[in-house]
């Protein structure tokens, strides 16, 4: 097995969902490396590229580059090995369970996972007490951009990792997390301090079925890595709508006007779009402090670029800036692939019906004489 592939597989346990940074001017000025002819996309009646349709963003490429992998581009054979392992794992997990199988290990499987999806599956309780693979659609292919197979969605900084949080961000988040769970916490990281169960507003947004975990709605909008991987785009002359299958989140991008007053803030921020040739540039500000993407402050600014690069693909690029959290911006990119699949309702009954039980259980735990 190649040394680089061994490093990629062995370091999966260190992976965390993250983004990256190219300065906005650099990222938004990029063109497809090696492209011999620019794609001329279909047009809407007003002459702009037609992005409308359903897109699948599933992938096995993590947002942040694994430890031990130094390059953005994976050799073809290493990418093929990663994809082959994940396909084999999914096929194995889909086999009927043997009635005479042994009990799973106490606390779940403890061996080192060999792929990012396997890590997420275990962290989500897939081995003991959680979802099985029947309910999941975790992707089986690495991200490919400009013919390059990528080790991460992050493209800048060069190490493929989110820049360290600065002192101001650390101090702010220490105060917040002392009494609650991070609003954007994922399913497998939503415990928190005892006081985080004092009331519903202290629980994560995804647990409350308000926004999808992992910034699936964005901005920046990232792969889910579990299920509900579809996004639908509908556009008019003045507006672009992005409907996310996960938690049925909807983004409205206005193509006219400017940002409103800073006192008016929303869950997904205020998105203003403009056309730059055949690319749609979207700037989003005015985030509420109820979301706190990766610990960001209300100064968060996300700049996105949507470019249709062939009949089946939109190349999505983003840059994240927040001087109150990170000392430099960070960026990433990955493709959205056209799909003929249907979006299904995400009713999120787990949060709506189990939430009362979560809080009642905490009250029993607080009782001097807990009932048994």
Average the pLDDT over all residues and give the rounded result. Answer: 85
Q: Regions with pLDDT < 50 over 5+ consecutive residues? A: 1-36
Shape: globular
- Rg over CA atoms: 21 Å
The percent of residues in helical segments reads 10-25%
| Through-space gap between termini | 53 Å
Count helical runs.
6
Largest sheet: 9 strands, mixed, barrel
Pattern of helices and strands: HHEEHHEEEHEEEEEEEEH
Give the strand order of the largest sheet, numbering strands 1, 2, ... along the chain: 1-6-7-8-9-10-11-12-13
Structural class by secondary-structure content = alpha+beta
**Beta-strand residue percentage:** 15-25%
Give the strand tally. Answer: 13
What are the key terms here?
13 strands, 372 residues, disordered N terminus, three-stranded antiparallel beta sheet, nine-stranded mixed barrel
How does this structure look, described?
The protein has 372 residues and is α+β, with helices and mostly antiparallel strands. It has six helices and 13 strands. The strands form two sheets. The chain has a nine-stranded mixed β-barrel with strand order 1-6-7-8-9-10-11-12-13. The protein has a three-stranded antiparallel β-sheet with strand order 2-4-3. Strand 9 (270-276) and strand 10 form a beta hairpin. The chain is globular and about 65 Å long. The N and C termini lie far apart (53 Å).
């Amino acid at each position: 097995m190649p040394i680089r592939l061994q490093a990629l597989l062995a370091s999966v346990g260190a992976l965390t969902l993250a983004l990256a940074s190219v300065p906005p001017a650099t990222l938004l000025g990029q063109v497809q490396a090696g492209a011999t002819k620019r794609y001329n996309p279909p047009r809407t009646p007003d002459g702009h590229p037609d992005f409308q349709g359903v897109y699948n963003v599933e992938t096995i490429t993590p947002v942040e580059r694994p430890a031990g992998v130094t390059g953005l581009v994976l050799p073809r054979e290493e990418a093929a090995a990663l994809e082959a392992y994940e396909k084999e794992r999914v096929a194995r997990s889909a086999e009927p369970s043997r009635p005479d199988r042994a009990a799973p290990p106490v606390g779940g499987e403890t061996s080192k996972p060999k792929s990012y999806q396997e890590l997420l599956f275990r962290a989500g309780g897939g081995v003991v007490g959680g979802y099985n693979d029947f309910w999941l659609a975790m992707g089986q292919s690495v991200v490919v951009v400009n013919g390059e197979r990528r080790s991460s969605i992050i493209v800048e900084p060069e190490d493929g990792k989110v820049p360290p949080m600065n002192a101001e961000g650390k101090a702010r988040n220490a105060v917040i997390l002392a009494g609650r769970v991070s609003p954007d916490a994922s399913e497998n990281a939503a415990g928190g301090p005892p006081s985080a169960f004092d009331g519903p507003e202290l629980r994560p947004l995804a647990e409350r079925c308000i926004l999808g975990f992992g910034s699936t709605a964005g901005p920046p909008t990232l792969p889910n890595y579990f299920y509900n991987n579809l996004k639908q785009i509908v556009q008019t002359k003045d507006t672009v709508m992005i409907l996310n299958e996960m938690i049925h989140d909807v983004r409205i991008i206005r193509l006219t006007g400017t940002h409103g007053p800073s006192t008016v803030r929303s869950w997904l921020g205020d998105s203003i779009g403009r056309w730059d040739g055949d690319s749609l540039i979207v700037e989003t500000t005015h985030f509420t402090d109820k979301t706190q993407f990766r610990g960001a402050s209300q100064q968060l600014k996300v700049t996105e670029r949507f470019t249709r690069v062939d009949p089946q693909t939109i190349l999505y690029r983003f840059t994240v800036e927040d001087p109150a959290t990170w000392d430099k911006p960070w960026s990433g990119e990955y493709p959205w692939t056209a799909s003929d699949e249907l979006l299904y309702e995400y009713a999120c009954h787990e949060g709506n019906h189990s939430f009362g039980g979560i809080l009642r259980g905490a009250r029993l735990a607080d009782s001097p004489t807990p009932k048994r």
